What does this fold into?
Amino acid sequence: MKAIITVVGKDNVGILAKVSTACADADVNIIEVTQSVLQDMFAMTMMVEIDKSLGIDSLRNKLEKVGEETCTKIHVMHEDIFNSMHKI
Amino acid sequence: MLETKDILETINMIDNENLDVRTITMGISLLDCMDEDIDKASGKVYDKVCRYAQDLVKTGEDIEKQYGIPIINKRISVSPIGMIAAPCQSKNVVKFAKALDKAAHTLGVNFIGGYSALVHKGFSAGDYAVIDSIPEALAETERVCSSVNIGSTKAGLNMDAVKMMGKIVKRTAERTADRDCIGAAKLVVFCNAPEDNPFMAGAFHGAGEADCVINVGVSGPGVVRAALAKDGHGKSIDEIADMIKKTAFKITRMGQLVAKEASKRLCVPFGIVDLSLAPTPAVGDSVAYILEEMGLESCGCHGTTAALALLNDAVKKGGVMASSHVGGLSGAFIPVSEDAGMIAAAKRGTLDITKLECMTAVCSVGLDMIVVPGDISPEKISAIIADEAAIGMVNSKTTAVRLIPAINKKAGDELNFGGLLGKGPVMPIRDGEPDVFINRGGRLPAPLQSLKN
It folds into this structure.
């Protein structure tokens, strides 16, 4: 299944690296990344492919810890939410 | 790829603007549980509810985890117990309420609705016993909700039931006076009650419904208010209406997704999505604040009814295309004690029961969660019910009354129910006695607009 990871917070060194490493460790394939830094604020969205055996909740728990380490807010949500809300 | 701004908008709605799926409500028909022996009948009710809804809470939690959307309540509505109690000779129909309460505890749902009677034209066997037992049922159970439909556009108003309900509301408050009169907060008196409403306390599973369905109620007053606060400055009313429609569309699409998923996982047909703006006492999650964001100094001031009419209509128009089946109440709720902005306006004195009554002509429900002085007479409660039902009957819309007489308290005091039910100041009511009018009884004839055939 596809999920969207969003990372928002104050910019600091290594956010992208730490999030990508956590994804790789969990065997999660990153399909697409969009990232921007605006006035010190870091915002990144990633589309990833999650193995069904891992489960979205498990990846969410792992990445929440990375969020604490990097002082950012990380969300992992199913792609369908965004498709249903923003596409007709 | 999705647009980053759209993704962040959704995240912000959930994180900061209280967007949630308010309830997944499983409707269960109990028509096959009827029995002359009330012990057998209530046993069948308990068994069927527990069998059908055994996975409801877990499935709701799983969907919540899967999609990252808060699903606040998992609830159950059942066929009106007035029907199920029809064959029972026993007067002790409270046994049904206890069976429902026990099932709610077993399953872990926070409310179960359907201790109800539909008497808009008259009482059938079972209805009278159920209505008469409501005070006891709501005092002796924790999670059971009750509703009575006393009128409809087609049938007119059953004024005998109106008269009776004044007494029942008062007795229900008295029986739970030691718990901030909470019994009355779980009792709704309807005109034109919808049969597929997923929201409590008025949910019941109508006789025309399937054996079991999933109905979903979405919410999001905070999201609408935030959208107006962000982009609404200097905009004309039609632009405001457009913004509300777009927001309602997005909220409802999320509800539709959850409803379809819940229906698939539970192997139960999808019924409807109820696209209501249901406030909670949480700061920012208020319908009153939306009205104030449109440019009213305080909810309740002149202009409130027009602003609410616009909101109610735009929510429906935005939501209707987002769901394959829209139903229930669908619109904007104005429960005073559950809405931080309404509570503040009531305390300021800008919002009173008369203005609220006007607002109910254009909102999706009615006089909801209004705390009134404890010495109110049953006849005055009946008269408030009659006024509200008349608005619903004539305008072919649902109206409801959920009044909480604050026993031993007077105007200016406060009742605190806690949780989603909130807290409310005791609001003064109008002087003058309607006793002779109410005690006439009989039926108030259906209006001309009922003759559509």
About this structure: Chain B has 16 helices and 13 strands. The domain at 217-253+271-447 of chain B is CATH 3.20.70.20 (Anaerobic Ribonucleotide-triphosphate Reductase Large Chain). The mean pLDDT of chain B is 94. Chain B touches chain A through 20 residues (CB under 8 Å).
